[in-house]
């Protein structure tokens, strides 16, 4: 008998789940239906033409230290098409100008006092406070401390606000005072428990760290943009996958025989043996509410940050250059609209070659900062233009503009997140064959989403195999 499975959400997690199911099923008859609300698969991994060249609207690279996106790309035969970003400097726009990040950072925390002093990122009192780490007594930490609790208690608030939050929090568009250190910077969390002085622990970590060059490039993407990955993954499943684009799932409910009904907003429905729900937590909570209100209640507690990415193309004469580096981050404490600016033309050689325009991507918005959402695209670009003039001396208006709004895009891994995910997974034991996957749970980067989809698929496959075994086993 053919088993049936639904994958809800065609972002990286959902696509990777569907792909894994089709890989592991072998000759076993398994019908996989992918429901995607949008007209395309890929979710936040999206590349569209900008000034005639493919430029990402969401992520523009994946990290290789977590190997899962790289391995998936290899499986799909895409390894020859990787491109590597130029490893230029990153800057901070703070205390009145662009300043190079100090050398010797370990997961966003400095270990070289002279480099920090030279960077001018901290004031003199801020520097002196950071030095107190060497003499302060050990501090008791809660089970799952926040970034600010740990780094702030050792190095002081200024270090958190001006350096650590933009770097560690920036990846999640989050707040150091809320984010769990263990979830966002696990090495730091470990180091914080090792010795009285955090600096000493970090120096040890730094010694053990492999030089990036020894282990290959730290980040990868594709000449066609990162959207090439979901595109090719989707293509690889053509003919085997039952795809329902433009189909928004409303709810999953359980039938008396233990199967599940997947109901869509357009009135269509399917009955399946198992479901992988690979949508953001704020959507998943609605989808599973009737099935498991307890899980829905936990999902409702996962907060999200909305971000806007403005891609701007300038005539080369407008930008004082050459740009040396990958761009800059802006600490929240400086109260700018922009949270980061990536110098795409300087970061990606293939973009430099493809167009004379200087392309930059400005990010706006982070957790509890929604100012960009209350103004029009036009007003947003005008504000960004003023900030680019103040930071980089950009003199003219951009000749190409694209604004991508990502509402509730970044899940916040607040203190207590890991325990919440454990509770959710325990509660899901009550609904065998229903799994959650995606950025909201074990990691928000593309590689972590790929892996989460794979893991959900493997667990579901195990469940289906034992279910089928039980159904076909001879009765005694
Ligand atoms: C601006 C930006 C920059 C980023 N930069 C990086 C980076 O450089 N590197 C990196 O590794 N990560 C980065 N990330 C994070 C990463 O892109 C995401 O966390 C990841 O792609 C999320 O994948 P996902 O499958 O969990 O969710 P999504 O991509 O959100 O996919 C969920 C899918 O579900 C669909 N859906 C929603 N509701 C329903 C419904 N009811 N029924 C059916 N379908 C539904 C959506 O349309 C979507 O396609 C970035 C994210 C953003 C927004």
Automatic annotation (TrEMBL):
GO process annotations (BP): heme biosynthetic process
Entry GO MF terms: oxygen-dependent protoporphyrinogen oxidase activity
UniProt catalytic activity: coproporphyrinogen III + 3 O2 = coproporphyrin III + 3 H2O2
Assigned GO CC terms: cytoplasm
Main localization category: cytoplasm
Pathway(s) of this molecule: Porphyrin-containing compound metabolism; protoheme biosynthesis
Chain ranges of the Amine oxidase domain: 12-457
Keywords noted in UniProt: Cytoplasm, FAD, Flavoprotein, Heme biosynthesis, Oxidoreductase
Cofactor(s) required, per the database record: FAD
Compartment(s): Cytoplasm
EC number: 1.3.3.15
EC class (word): oxidoreductase
Family that this chain belongs to: Belongs to the protoporphyrinogen/coproporphyrinogen oxidase family. Coproporphyrinogen III oxidase subfamily.
Function: Involved in coproporphyrin-dependent heme b biosynthesis. Catalyzes the oxidation of coproporphyrinogen III to coproporphyrin III.
Protein name as annotated: Coproporphyrinogen III oxidase
């Amino acid at each position: 008998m053919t088993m049936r499975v639904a994958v809800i959400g065609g972002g990286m997690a959902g696509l990777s789940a569907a792909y894994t199911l089709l890989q592991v099923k072998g000759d076993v008859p398994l019908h996989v239906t992918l429901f995607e609300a949008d007209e395309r698969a890929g979710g936040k991994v999206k590349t569209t033409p900008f000034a005639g060249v493919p430029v990402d609207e969401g992520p523009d690279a994946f990290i290789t230290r977590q190997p899962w996106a790289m391995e998936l790309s290899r499986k799909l035969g895409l390894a020859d098409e990787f491109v590597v970003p130029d490893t230029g400097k990153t800057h901070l726009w703070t205390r009145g100008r662009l300043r190079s990040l100090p050398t010797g950072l370990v997961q966003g925390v400095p270990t070289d006092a002279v480099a920090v002093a030279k960077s001018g990122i901290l004031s003199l009192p801020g520097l002196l406070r950071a030095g107190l780490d060497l003499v302060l007594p050990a501090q008791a930490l809660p089970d799952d401390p926040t970034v600010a609790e740990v780094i702030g208690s050792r190095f002081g608030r200024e270090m958190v606000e001006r350096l650590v939050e933009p770097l560690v929090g920036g990846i999640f568009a989050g707040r150091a005072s809320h984010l769990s250190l263990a979830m966002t910077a696990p090495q730091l969390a470990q180091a914080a428990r090792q010795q009285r002085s955090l600096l000493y622990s970090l120096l040890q970590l730094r010694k053990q760290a492999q030089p990036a060059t020894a282990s290959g490039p730290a980040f990868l993407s594709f000449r066609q943009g990162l959207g090439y990955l979901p595109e090719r993954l989707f293509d690889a499943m053509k003919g085997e996958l039952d795809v329902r684009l433009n189909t928004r799932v409303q709810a999953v409910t359980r039938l008396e025989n233990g199967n599940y009904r997947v109901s869509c907003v357009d009135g269509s429905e399917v009955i399946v043996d198992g479901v992988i729900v690979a949508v953001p937590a704020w959507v998943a909570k609605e989808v599973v509410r009737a099935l498991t209100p307890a899980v829905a209640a936990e999902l409702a507690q996962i907060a999200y940050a909305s971000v806007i990415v403005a891609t701007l193309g300038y005539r080369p004469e407008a930008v004082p250059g050459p740009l040396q580096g990958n761009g800059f981050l802006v600490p929240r404490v400086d109260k700018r609209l922009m949270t980061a600016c990536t110098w795409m033309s300087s970061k990606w050689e293939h973009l430099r070659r493809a167009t004379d325009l200087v392309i930059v991507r400005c990010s706006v918005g982070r957790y509890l900062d929604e100012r960009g959402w209350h103004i029009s695209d036009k007003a947003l670009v005008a504000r960004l233009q003023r900030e680019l003039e103040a930071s980089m001396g950009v003199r003219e208006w951009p000749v190409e503009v694209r604004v991508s709004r990502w509402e509730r895009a970044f899940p916040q891994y607040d203190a207590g997140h890991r325990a919440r995910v454990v509770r959710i997974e325990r509660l899901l034991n009550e609904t065998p064959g229903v799994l959650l996957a995606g950025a909201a749970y074990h990691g928000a980067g593309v590689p972590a989403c790929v892996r989460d989809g794979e893991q959900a698929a493997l667990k579901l496959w195990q469940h289906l195999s034992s279910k089928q075994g039980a159904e076909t086993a001879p009765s005694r």
